[in-house]
Amino acid sequence: MLPFGLGRSYGDSCLNDGGDLLVTEELKHLLAFDAERGMMRCEAGVTLDELLRFIVPRGWFLPVTPGTKFITVGGAIANDIHGKNHHRAGTFGCHVTKFELLRSTGERLICSPTENTAQFAATIGGLGLTGLITWAEFQLLRIENSMIDVEELQFANLDEFFAISAESDADFAYTVSWVDCLAEGPSLGRGIFMRGNHARGDSLSHRLHRPPRLGVPVEFPDFALNQYSIQAFNTLYYAKALEAFSRKIVHYDPFFYPLDAVNHWNRIYGRRGFFQYQFVIPFSGDRKVIREIFQRIAASGQGSFLAVLKTFGERRSPGMLSFPAPGLTLALDFANQGWETLSLFNELDQVVLATGGRIYPAKDARMPARVFQECYPRWEEFRQYIDPAFSSSFWRRVNSPV
Amino acid sequence: MQNVLIIGATSAIAQAVARQFAERGANLVLWARSAEKMGIVASDLRTRYQAKVVIEAFDFVDFSHHAPALDRAIAAHGELHAAILCHGSLGDQAASQADFSVTDQELLTNCRSALSFLTLLANRFEQQGHGTIAVISSVAGDRGRQSNYVYGTAKAALNTFAQGLRNRLYSKGVHVLTVKPGFVDTPHDRSPAKRARSSPPPDRVARDIIRAIDREQCVLYTPWFWRWIMLIINLIPEPIFRKLKL
Ligand SMILES: Cc1cc2nc3c(=O)[nH]c(=O)nc-3n(C[C@H](O)[C@H](O)[C@H](O)COP(=O)(O)OP(=O)(O)OC[C@H]3O[C@@H](n4cnc5c(N)ncnc54)[C@H](O)[C@@H]3O)c2cc1C
Ligand SMILES: NC(=O)c1ccc[n+]([C@@H]2O[C@H](COP(=O)([O-])OP(=O)(O)OC[C@H]3O[C@@H](n4cnc5c(N)ncnc54)[C@H](OP(=O)(O)O)[C@@H]3O)[C@@H](O)[C@H]2O)c1
């Protein structure tokens, strides 16, 4: 069996082909909230969407949030998710103070940095394999209103990206960049840098987010997305930030969760669907390597709508198999073109591994066992904490002998 | 509705009703058989709404427990303004058909325990001269069908009992509401066939129930279209109905 949150992982780490899934949708109770200290304890099936509805009006925010609010607390821990504030705040697991782990034997373990510490470390980023997290306790972040003070800056190439990044990380809680992966030559790595802080002051809006209003009712035909339509989209998106610099105050919802505004956005990729590919490479020598990666993607002619580039910081997660590490991370989506797409990934794997980088399981549906084992040298140590009754499609793939 | 008693408080529909009452500032008394599950439900109500919640866990088939539990419920926050009966189980029709002791057990859970609660509540509310009693029945009680007539029998008995009470208590200022849900997305029935029908969430049903209590409605079908579905089903002549695979 395998715990299942909201299935927002992009690959097979939340699937268990031929086995059972433990659906956690009934685990949606809030158990305790300390309004003074911002300490929340809730069941693992509570979604970030529900949490925000409760905490934002009380002046608190999630310590770390991914690009969608439709995930569960259990999923946030099991993939040890990161957000736009990784360079300062680390992963979600860095803010977890305690949780209960229910094993298939019926045993219940309270895990924290001081109790059952090995299970604590194995479960954070543990891909749901160590048991079912029934509830968790974590520290929230104080906010004064619902708004984010955002700046957007164009960068014409990778060198400009690194310059902006270096000057931003200290002063901005949130940083992220969108990169046009189809641009080549002198514009290689051009894009838009977004950086922001929670706005100050009680006079600004405290309003909550609203439910999604748009939807993609049917799957798009396969020809709708091709090199030309993506190129056009990317060029328009780049041109959107017409002024090289803009500053505005926006609500947290469009800032963190732009895709949540459109229900079933994934349908634009049609029947064949798409792959995500996200890796991190260490800071040392990253310019040469990242340039090589962009060159290979541009040369392959396989576009990515959303190429997201960000620096990860030094803050270490307690998680044994946690993905983030200090360095540069790039997340890409590729329409599934079958063999061509997969062979591009195999090429990228080699570049990433050669520089000591790793690939994110939450967004993976294809990495070979050898690649996983090289990315996560602690995987063998991790194995002893797996619940004997638990497994996943992902795990059976990457755990096989090489 | 200041003080509300919720019987079968761990049921998904009951939890949604409790949340909506707590949101309005009501004080709650919760009864259910599982102390552990109910403890979690109570923590949620306290955390979200700072609600005053008192809980008591006991097995509902233990009739000797009913009257003293009601005394304690009234002692907790004072006179009750509403009581809602939510417990029930869909049971296993095939097993009930094969063995009357299973049928008997189903009737005990779904019907006799509820009739005992209703008797006590009716007398108490009659004495105090106000209050609303809501009982969650089912559309399954409207007509016997081969797929679940044991469950249907229990609900039909509840319907008639509640109807009688409504008539008896009307002049005493006490209101009785019969709730007949259609399919609701809860653990009550998680068969794939039902999930495929995309049933409404319990929150929506709870909203309807609270509105019906406020308006002193007698019988509530929820969601609303079940009233019309059941009207049609009830109009089918029995000689034809008996041939249908329902
Ligand atoms: C639009 C979008 C943007 C995203 N952006 C980011 C991002 O910026 N950063 C990032 O890190 N990720 C991101 N993700 C990935 C997503 O945050 C993770 O995949 C997350 O783990 C999904 O959570 P879920 O609740 O849907 O869990 P699922 O996908 O259902 O499950 C994920 C894993 O958690 C385990 N699990 C779930 N519940 C429990 C439990 N109670 N106990 C034990 N294990 C459990 C499962 O077994 C599985 O291994 C994004 C995804 C989308 C769709
Ligand atoms: N969901 C539907 O589609 C639907 C449709 C029509 C009518 N209804 C009716 O709506 C009511 C609420 O159902 P639901 O959908 O919310 O179901 P649910 O979530 O499955 O809840 C059923 C509840 O009944 C309790 N219960 C069962 N047997 C009991 C016993 N012997 N003693 C004490 N408690 C017992 C259960 O307690 P535990 O938590 O301890 O198991 C649980 O709280 C029921 O009367 C049901 O018949 C539901």
From TrEMBL, chain A:
Entry GO MF terms: FAD binding; oxidoreductase activity, acting on the CH-OH group of donors, oxygen as acceptor
Entry-linked Gene3D superfamilies: 3.30.465.10
InterPro entries assigned to the protein according to its UniProt record, in alphabetical order: FAD-bd_PCMH, FAD-bd_PCMH-like_sf, FAD-bd_PCMH_sub2, FAD_lactone_oxidase-like, Oxid_FAD_bind_N
FAD-binding PCMH-type domain segment(s): 1-143
Pfam families: FAD_binding_4 (PF01565)
Annotated SUPFAM superfamilies: FAD-binding/transporter-associated domain-like
Protein name: FAD linked oxidase domain protein
Organism in which the protein naturally occurs: Chthoniobacter flavus Ellin428
Automatic annotation (TrEMBL), chain B:
Entry superkingdom: Bacteria
Pfam family, one: adh_short
Keywords for this protein: Oxidoreductase
GO cellular component: membrane
Listed transmembrane segments: none
Record bears the keyword Lyase: no
An annotated Gene Ontology molecular function: oxidoreductase activity
Record has Plastid as a keyword: no
Family membership noted in the UniProt record: Belongs to the short-chain dehydrogenases/reductases (SDR) family.
Protein known as: Short-chain dehydrogenase/reductase SDR
